[in-house]
């Protein structure tokens, strides 16, 4: 396989948070968008924050939370409720981890 077949521009992907507690608290599932892939710098920043505070991780993740037009949601001093932000951090980190394993070939994972 030629390496260029794996290269592509990031695409917005919809993320739904339909966690029972979130839906109960806010009345419906919540949606936002993230890019399906990120540059290595962003990925390594997140990976290196593993032992850091959740606040530091949330700060980095907040730049990745987008609306359907690809615009940042957290702007102009706005913040999300803590329960939502915690869930978003969890979902984004999980998605980034899954995107790595999905692009690795089986031989590379062994």
Descriptive report:
This protein is mostly helical and 110 residues long. It has one domain (10-109). The chain is 46% helix and 11% strand. It contains five helices and two strands. The chain is globular, with a radius of gyration of 15 Å.
List keywords for this structure.
110 residues, mainly alpha, two-stranded antiparallel ribbon, 5 helices, 2 strands, globular
Brief write-up:
The chain has 110 residues and is mainly alpha-helical.
List the helices and strands and how they pair.
Blueprint: E1 12-17, H1 20-26, E2 30-35, H2 40-48, H3 54-62, H4 82-103, H5 106-109
Antiparallel strand pairs: 1-2
Helix pairs in contact: 3-4
Strand content: 5-15%
Determine the structural class based on helices, strands and strand pairing. Answer: mainly alpha
Largest sheet: 2 strands, antiparallel
How many separate helices?
5
Q: What would you report as the Rg, rounded to the nearest angstrom?
A: 15 Å
The topology string of helices and strands comes to: EHEHHHH
Order of adjacent strands in the largest pleated sheet: 1-2
Q: In percent, how helical is the residue content? A: 40-55%
Low-pLDDT runs:
100-110
Average pLDDT across residues?
Answer: 83
Compute the number of strand runs: 2
* Total number of distinct structural domains: 1
Distance between the termini: 18 Å
Overall geometric form: globular
């Amino acid at each position: 396989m030629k390496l260029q077949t794996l290269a592509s521009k990031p695409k917005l992907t919809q993320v739904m948070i339909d966690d029972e507690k979130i839906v109960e608290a806010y009345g419906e599932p919540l949606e936002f968008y993230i890019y399906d892939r990120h540059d290595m710098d962003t990925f390594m920043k997140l990976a290196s924050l593993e032992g850091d505070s959740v606040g530091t991780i949330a700060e980095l993740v907040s730049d990745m939370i987008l609306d359907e037009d690809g615009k940042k949601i957290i702007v102009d001093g706005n913040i999300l409720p803590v329960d939502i932000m915690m869930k978003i951090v969890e979902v984004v980190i999980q998605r980034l981890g899954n995107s790595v394993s999905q692009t690795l070939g089986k031989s590379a994972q062994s």
